[in-house]
Amino acid sequence: xxxxxxxxxxxxxxxxxxxxxxxxxxxxxxxxxxxxxxxxxxxxxxxxxxxxxxxxxxxxxxxxxxxxxxxxxxxxxxxxxxxxxxxxxxxxxxxxxxxxxxxxxxxxxxxxxxxxxxxxxxxxxxxxxxxxxxxxxxxxxxxxxxxxxxxxxxxxxxxxxxxxxxxxxxxxxxxxxxxxxxxxxxxxxxxxxxxxxxxxxxxxxxxxxxxxxxxxxxxxxxxxxxxxxxxxxxxxxxxxxxxxxxxxxxxxxxxxxxxxxxxxxxxxxxxxxxxxxxxxxxxxxxxxx
Length: 289
Ligand SMILES: Nc1nc2c(c(=O)[nH]1)N[C@H]1C(S)=C(S)[C@@H](COP(=O)(O)O)O[C@H]1N2
Ligand SMILES: [Mo]
Known about the structure:
This protein is an alpha+beta fold. It has 2 domains: 30-62; 66-107 and 120-281, Sulfite Oxidase, Chain A, domain 2 (Alpha-Beta Complex). The protein is built from 5 helices and 12 strands. The strands form 3 sheets. The protein has a 5-stranded mixed sheet with strand order 4-3-12-7-8. The site of the ligand Nc1nc2c(c(=O)[nH]1)N[C@H]1C(S)=C(S)[C@@H](COP(=O)(O)O)O[C@H]1N2 has 20 residues, from loops.
């Protein structure tokens, strides 16, 4: 055992005068208060949260089960999944702009927009819909009211033309996604369609053409179901005019303007990659940007 070094002897000589202390009793009271304050604080910082966490944990693990997990865990997984899906979708969102920047775009291109068109007699033809066994059935026709009955959605995005100009426009209409939920496409697999949970099972393409067949576009299903893709009937707060594609046009901000077909006559869900007016004239079929 090591010996402690011997204490130094106090220096010889007269005892130093005691250092004056301001009221010793007050000092120890202060110290006690400080200790009390610290332990109360450590109680709040340590014991209370730990206790709360334990209670919380007990609450969690004693919850009703949902698919083999206490429901709060199941909900957390579902929220995670939703976040992942939302992230996937929103990761590709086209930039949105303030409405104050929106203006009327130059009317551009009138292929397939013959003068003898009568908007009053217009009906939308839809082909390639699913039946309950996932196969396509006979075409249906829809009025504009059927499209307007779907939830109205606004987007303020840039219309970008391959000619080099672009314009911020405020469009309104039905999301193509909501249209496809109400009128589901046939599937490739023969399964019943589930547009939200199993879009990969749907046929791969959407074809749209003007009533006279003079202009037509092919769209991949993922871009058609993109949350900013609209079946549009309003431009900058007013009903679409004929030159901008009344009664119904496509607005697909993730692609160049060539794909935003005006005056849609027919929508076809199909597994054959559709021909495309501008792709046949040398432009990129996908036309994303
Ligand atoms: N039916 C039809 N839709 C069309 C076109 C066309 O020639 N015919 N041109 C496309 C092109 S190249 C562009 S840039 C946009 C322009 O839309 P806007 O005329 O409403 O500005 O429409 C697209 N949709
Ligand atoms: Mo364009």
